[in-house]
Amino acid sequence: MSLRKGLSIFLFLSVAMCGAVLIFSVDRKSFIVFKHANTFKIYLAFMLVVCVWLLDAVKMWLLVRAAGESITFLTSMELAWINYFGAAITPMQSGGGPLQMYVMYQHGISVGKSVAITIIRTVLVMLILGAMIPFAIMIKGNLPKMGWGIRGFVSYVVVFILAIWLALVVSVVKPALVKRLAAWIITFLRRIGFLKAEWEIGLLRLVIREIDTYNENVRAFLTTGRRYFLPSVFTAFAQIVCQLSVMPCMIWALGFPVSYPECVLLQALFLFLLYFIPTPGGSGAAEGGAAFVFSMFVPWNVAGMLGIGWRFMTEYTGIFMGAIVAVRRIGWQLANQIMSKKNAEAKSAGEDQESGAD
After folding, report:
1. Measured between alpha carbons, how far is 21 from 16 in angstroms, rounded to an integer?
2. Contact status, residue 122 vs residue 72, Cβ threshold 8 Å
3. How many CA atoms lie within 13 A of 30 on its CB side?
4. H helix and E strand count, the chain
């Protein structure tokens, strides 16, 4: 998906859903409630967003240091913002990593190390976010009264988190097993016609090389880079806590009571679900879902405006900053090429193998 297309879909779905939410939720009483909002708590919510940016930048700086490289804090901020932009305009929020890798490559960090850094960054966020769900359940004692749907999703998240931990451990301890699995998947894709036969060996070599590079750098995180890696884990946790604290802060600003653990639980479920929404950046589902989560704690005529405001404060501002960084640091055309780089590499590997056979 090109940047222009991804951005267009993101803007269309976001604006359309925001409009729909506001049309079906706002009434006269909504404005009266917001008129009496506590301005200080609104500012506090925004300051929490700024803290999220700063902690994200610190986390990236620590991960780069753990990989044996060095960047300035300003570059770390750019890496944080550009990730928001890339994630917003790609399905499954997958586009931030390639843009971050290019910026790191500009600063002399090898592709192998940048891949390991971006993978670890993503895994850290998903693991901590998922781990907060059962932690919040233990604090609260039970789930909100939302039926078996939420209970089932909690179970799914727990299983998914355990699967990620298992995959991470296996990838470090048994890389040969991962290579065999990759070979089986590639062979299967070729047999069902999803992958051209002449691409199979070239793609397999590419994947094995990436697995070796990833394994080498992850081991470095846990050995020589441990003094920086462990603080990055705590920083990632603090970042997520700040991010999940914005919503209850906005609710308190309007004078409504809210259970902090319960609000954190629902947000963790919601944000985790957004990773699997196929629209760019989870657009559409993010705006409607935010309003739905707020409706668990405030009246519907207030939830709509709060959901849109929360989405604007926590996401749109960071995406806007990321867009500025992407244009200034990379340029629109080059960024578009970077987003499709993986597909091009796989195709090139297959063509090279075919050429060698000739």
Report:
1. 9
2. no
3. 17
4. 16, 0
Two structure tokens written together for 180: 């065999």
Residue 319 — φ and ψ, nearest 5°? Answer: -65, -40
DSSP assignment of 100-131 equals: HHHHHHHTT--HHHHHHHHHHHHHHHHHHHHH
DSSP state of 296: T
Tokens of 306: 């709060």
CA–CA distance, 146 with 32 (Å, rounded to integer): 29
**Residue 356 one-letter amino acid:** G
Angle at 320 between CA 319 and CA 321, to 5 degrees: 90
**Of the candidates 32, 18, 112, 48, which has an alpha carbon nearest to the alpha carbon of residue 244?**
48
52, 60 contact by CB (below 8 A) = no
Cβ neighbours, 10 Å, residue 168: 15
| 143-171: pLDDT as tens digits | 545 555 555 666 666 676 677 677 777 77
Summarised one tens digit per residue, pLDDT across range 209-252 is 777 777 777 777 777 788 898 899 999 999 999 999 999 999 99
Which residue blocks in the chain are alpha helix, DSSP H?
A: 3-25, 28-35, 39-66, 73-88, 96-106, 111-140, 148-173, 175-191, 200-222, 226-253, 260-274, 285-295, 300-311, 317-325, 332-339, 341-357
Round to whole Å and give the CA distance between 302 and 27.
Answer: 9
Alpha carbons 99 and 118: distance in angstroms, whole number: 10
**How many whole angstroms separate alpha carbon 63 and alpha carbon 51?**
18
Query: What angle do helix axes 200-222 and 111-140 make, rounded to 10 degrees?
Result: 60
* Residue environment code for 190-224, b if the CB has 16+ CB neighbours within 10 A, otherwise e: beeeebeeebbbbbbebbeebbebbbebbebbeee
pTM equals: 0.80
Amino acid (1-letter code) at residue 286: A
**Residue 206, C-beta contacts closer than 8 angstroms, at least 6 positions apart:** 345, 346, 349
